[in-house]
Amino acid sequence: MAKKRLVLALGHxxxxxxxxxxxxxxxxxxxxxxxxxxxxxxxVITHGNTPQLGMIHTALNEFAKNHEGYTPAPMSVCSxxxxxxxxxxxxxxxxxxxxxxxxxxxxxxxxxxxxxxxxDESSYTPMKVVxxxxxAEEAKEEEAKGNFVVKEGDGYRRIVAAPKPVxxxxxxxxxxxxDADQPVIAAGGGGIPVLPQNEELKGxxxxxEKDLTSGLMAEMxxxxxxxxxxxVENVSINYGTPDEKPLEHITVADAKKYIAEGxxxxxxxxxxxxxxxxxxxxxxxxxxxxxSIDSALAGFQGKTGTIIE
Length: 309
Known about the structure:
The protein is α/β, with parallel strands linked by helices. The chain is 39% helix and 24% strand. The strands form 4 sheets. The chain has an 8-stranded mixed β-sheet with strand order 3-9-2-1-12-16-17-15, sandwiched between helices. Strands 8-4-10-11 form a 4-stranded mixed β-sheet. The radius of gyration is 19 Å and the shape is globular.
């Protein structure tokens, strides 16, 4: 009998924001992931990278600014670096947790590229904030390079586009590991955004919404479940009002209705719900769960969280 397959998308709470926090957070996260593996599921793990990406981007660009002979790092390179160091901590924490349970499986991180469409509407409306706060002079320098900035408090921050994912370049390698019943970490931060140019892949100055890539990953791997872990136990409608209501078991039709009503924040719950709907509409017998890291196992068992079927 074929094993069931889970694509698990980790949010900020599962990883922390800096090196010490990440080291502590992944130890806890590994226990949650190991529960699914111990239960016999094949697990493919994706994760966010916003704090880590900002830290790397800032560090490398500040270094280049103050040291002759060094150049700033492109956004795609920073994304690749974040995949590597998050994956390093996460795969080692998971490997250790599995060994403690008598489970001997290799855990791998795959440097993952994701193609994007340069004509995607979102490519023309930068919205993802990255890097440190700049003064007015530095902001003008960024704009002179063709980059976009936005006013934030007393300073400015760089913003980049967040085009939708089109295809996962390394999907065959990810599938091969999953088919071999090996846990795999892939498409960190939504993947390294690339543009196909003849035989080459060119890095794009953008970031990809990791939940949308997670949904695409689940579709391409024909997963049975997509679980997106976030900071709250349930998605809510009428959020922040006296009529706020947590969603428990809902249908795809319900989810699409709430999306059409504008119930979800564009940079928070909306991509999670869109990813879940897309995944569910492209297959039968599938389930999507959105919940917190602390409620992961209970959500997996259908006891809590927002469950969409």
